[in-house]
Design a protein that fits this description.
The protein has 238 residues and is α/β, with parallel strands linked by helices. It is built from nine helices and eight strands. A hairpin with a 5-residue loop joins strand 6 and strand 7. The longest helix has 23 residues.
């Protein structure tokens, strides 16, 4: 929630299987003049009776606006979220020049990490630290979540160190993301956003692969919401 361009309130909840209910919890007791929704559930918000104007914008636009406001020198965005991965190239004015988006399956996303962490019986929040204990990233050939699980299980059965398997799973995500960045024309400064930006192993491997230090915002999974709010503040005044 913004007052002008200043953040005065922010909160988040797991999406769960009832995103509308979760959204209602987030806005209970809050007064606002306009709502702007982004992400996969934006259409659901648009259909709700909010008692105020409701608009929707794409995640691409939301991330571009949020990142450009926080980091005007940024030229590339990598967003690895729960459902998709996005690589975005920005102009000096924050306009989207080119983007790639993987949204057809869970490959390389937070859901991929969550699913594979379950194989190791480790909470996804601790999976990155666990993988950093590995000293050799084992090759994972498939990015399909189900097949990757099968590969990881087979490697365990062969006696491979679980930490090295976990490191290999993280490496496969990073390699896929780097290929997307290269296709949009990766240029510094690079901002790494989305929930997976909290993962220390992905951050480390990304830095190693690109040979540069990505900028990770303080709240990397709120950048899209911030950009949507900025769009709303701008259009409320016009």
């Amino acid at each position: 929630m913004l007052d002008g361009e200043k953040i005065v309130f922010q909160n988040k909840l797991p999406t769960t299987f009832n995103p509308v209910n979760q959204f209602k919890k987030l806005i209970t007791g809050i007064d606002f003049q306009m709502a702007v929704a982004t992400g996969y559930g934006r259409g659901l918000v648009e259909e709700m009776n909010m008692g105020c104007p409701v608009f929707t914008i794409t995640e691409i636009k939301a991330y571009a606006m949020g990142v450009h406001k926080l980091y005007p020198q940024a030229r590339t965005i990598l967003d690895i979220g729960g459902q998709d991965t996005k690589a975005i190239s920005l102009s000096s004015k924050g306009k989207v020049l080119k983007f790639e988006m993987n949204d057809r399956c869970a490959a390389g996303t937070g859901k991929f990490l969550e699913f594979t962490a379950n194989v190791f019986q480790i909470p996804v929040q601790e999976f990155g630290n666990y993988a950093l204990k590995g000293n050799k990233a084992l090759t994972i050939n498939s990015m399909c979540t189900v097949f990757a699980e099968t590969e990881a299980t087979s490697l365990m059965a062969r006696g491979e160190q679980p930490e090295n398997i976990a490191l290999g799973l993280h490496q496969s995500i990073v390699k896929r993301s780097v290929n997307m960045l290269k296709r949009v024309g990766m240029a510094p400064l690079l901002v790494f956003a989305g929930g997976v930006a909290h993962n220390r192993c992905v951050r480390y491997l990304l830095e190693k692969e690109l040979e540069l230090l990505p900028i990770v915002p303080q709240n990397p999974d709120m950048i899209g919401a911030f950009g949507a709010a900025l769009w709303g503040a701008k259009n409320l005044l016009t």
